[in-house]
Amino acid sequence: MSKQRVLSGIQTTGNLHLGNYLGAIRNWVEIQQDYDNFFFFADLHAITVPHDAKVLAANTFNLAAIYLACGIDLNCSTIFVQSHVSAHSELAWLLNCVTPLNWLERMIQFKEKAVKQGENVGVGLLDYPVLMAADILLYDADKVPVGEDQKQHLELTRDIAGRVNDQFGKKKQPVLKVPEPMIRKEGARVMSLADGTKKMSKSDPSELSRIDLLDPPDAITRKIKKCKTDPVKGLAFDDPERPECHNLLTLYQLLGNKTKQEVAAECQDMGWGQFKPLLTETAVEALKPIQVKYNELMDNQDYLNSVLRDGAAKASSVANQTLVRVKDAMGFLPPM
Ligand code: TYM
Description:
Elements: E1 5-11, H1 18-31, E2 36-42, H2 43-46, H3 53-70, E3 77-81, H4 87-96, H5 101-105, H6 108-117, H7 123-137, E4 143-145, H8 151-168, E5 180-182, H9 217-226, H10 243-255, H11 260-267, H12 272-298, H13 301-330
Parallel strand pairs: 1-2, 2-3, 4-5
């Protein structure tokens, strides 16, 4: 039996943080051998908020090195740049024309990001989830591993696929495969170091709110030293009054590859003065091999270029077949 297909991506909007790693990439690496995987760099999504043209390409390239440094295995996974496969933009247009506006207006991420941009909010930001649906549906993905914040976008993707199938599918032959979200319980929502009730985010103006995958040990040490804690002695998971405590213990658990029970027992009598150095050491050790590999890869740009070239070719051949199928179902005149 052929393997199920997995697809996911990350926006090329600068350095990745522990939320992106624990909520997404690390899970991809863990499951990849059991699936046929497509992981991409969402550069078209990165321009839905004002962007700097001078750094977009470099951010995309760096992200390729990060995926590989984190352990994406090219024997079972294809990595590619979204904008190198033009079918993404084209299917997004077709899906735009079947998606009701009010489905997009109720997306939480749109509302949150739109508030930040005021009057200048672009149409692309509203359309972000339709492009995301195109990304997923082009590959007939069975599973989409993401962090918790993407759940609503995946529900929308399922709704859009369902609508295309209802309008243009034949009884036993749907046009598009309806994908399933794959959201892990632990790590699905890594919170800010400055406020345990807010998600860790690339767009937070304070660098102290997040640990980036490429942060050197002294930055990690400084950020953990300054992170928000509470005055209670003894550390415990799942106390709604102590969101920072839960978040930091979860980071310690995931980065140290321990179980929740082990960490709960180890830390139950600890104070912050004892815990913070432990977490720092664990984070530094967990990120070190990724950083070493990243630097090696960045020294070998020809190799990375060839990986991206091969990835785009493989992704295009799959995506173009779906695009033809959708255009045919929607009644377009095929090219002569
Ligand atoms: P992006 O770049 O915003 O996020 C990339 C991945 O990181 C996860 N994530 C988190 N997980 C846990 N805790 C956090 N604090 C945290 N912050 C981010 C996100 O859930 C995501 O999995 N829209 C996607 C990019 C995308 C995509 C797709 C994903 C575009 N097309 C198709 C899957 C399938 C996004 O959130 O990017």
